[in-house]
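Hi R.,

Here's the chain you asked about this morning:
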Amino acid sequence: MREALVPLMADPDTARAAEEVHRRLQELGVRDRHIRAVAAELPVEDEATARALGRCLTRTGTSTAAVSMGIGLLARVGEPEDVPYLKLLGLLRGFAAPAVQALTALDCPTAALVWLGDRVGGRGLRHLVDALAARDDQAARSWLLAVPLEPRAVGPSTARRIAEAVRLADVLRADPVDIGVLAQAGRLLCRMASPRDYHAEILAYRQAVAAYEALIARASRLPPTLDHCATLLSLALDLYSGPSVLLGWRPGQREALLDALESVLTAPAWAAMAAGEPADPAERRRAHWIRRTARQPFARRATPARLRVEVTVRDPADPDIVETRLLIDGRPLVPEAFGRGPAGSPEYLLDSGRLRASTAPREVRLAEAYCTEGCCGALYVTICRDGEHVVWRDWRRPATPPSQQPPPELPEYRFDAAEYDAEITRAENDHSWAWPARSTARLIAAGLRNRPDLLTRWDAQPGWVGTDFTDPDTAVLSFTFWPGLAAGRRNREGPWLQFVWSVPEDGTPPEERAAAALRRLAAADPKAYAEVRGGSREHAEALGFPWPV
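And the predicted structure, written out as tokens:
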């Protein structure tokens, strides 16, 4: 690319040079992000000529490659008059990140970034948030305190940067505090505590305790809306069993904040609001979650057991995995001992009986890294029964990079066997957390464990059973078609396909819906009504199935 483009950088005929850039980039067929990387390193001997070429490409370019080259040049040699053009280009898909980078390099007015931030969404918004969080001025802070916290745009680490940039704890301690700021503060704290990252960002936010205390002291000022109720309940769940338990609390301070949240959420106006049945499906799903979860973070046990198991479902408006939180002596184990991802799902840890103890030692994976175990590891423990005790020992977790402080060695934990068995049995049989489609999926999975022949008779091997991540009201069963499996002649080198069968909610009880699904599996080949989702086009053609468009 350098060989093709460097000679054009000094061509005084800008139009001719721009036309040649178009032609050469098309011949090279290089991706836009690589073009921008090269543009950042090209030697620039005549800034005026390079600037003219960059302007010509950004203003008249007819391919994303050429425009990317122009943006890359203006990021280095642009001037204030280029700001309006870069702002407009930032509205186009794929150009938000380079446009923001160029605007930042030009030290453009904050108003230009705010203008763009008000008009983009998704991944593009993330780059605007990062750019404005780096600015120390009131206009940037005001925008950050009002920006919609879309999950794709504002992850846990970005939420922490916003909280730090706006000096969230100080803003909350001021009087009066705008209602919108209070609500935004709650959302930021919730997002920082999300398991949707490699570690709990709330633990890296130094002002977390002060922000929690200031927000909850003023929580009663929020009007009782569904969104405010879901936010306060999410905060309570995290203070009860999430990573925020590990913050530096004074004795009794966290418990006092939970009491304050309970007082707000159980007030008559708030309780009446949560009892409604919204017409919008997403809002209705959220209201149902509030009713299912309302008492969980305020439960008080007369004699706290050493091991506590809490299945936690997060706000459906900010969907995430369903997590089986494990607390030992009141402290959440996974964020403290692992910190690279959440604990396993209840289907994996509880429905399977993996946490049960026997005299035969058994290694159990308690948590997997946010990316995958193959990338950043997992947390394993060996569980065994030793007389009147259950022992967790022989921990395995990934090595700590040399640049980081290694965590303390994990000890051997010993639990009273009777108390341990009682807690695991309670957790395995408590499905109060589950919504109808999740219960349907759980019952289908149980049926397949009891009768694996329901799938194997059709040369199908079961995969995962759960709910659709984008449509949690739909139960989903995946399976792999291996010709010859039923007869014991499966060809591991031969063609195979993955199928997914969706079972939408229809208003009938989960028990009836699961039983109907199992009867259908017994009566008819699921490959006739499930959809192909994996394998290859060649395998699909060889096996006589259409490949999805």
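The chain is about 45% helix and 15% strand.

Let me know if you need anything else.
M.
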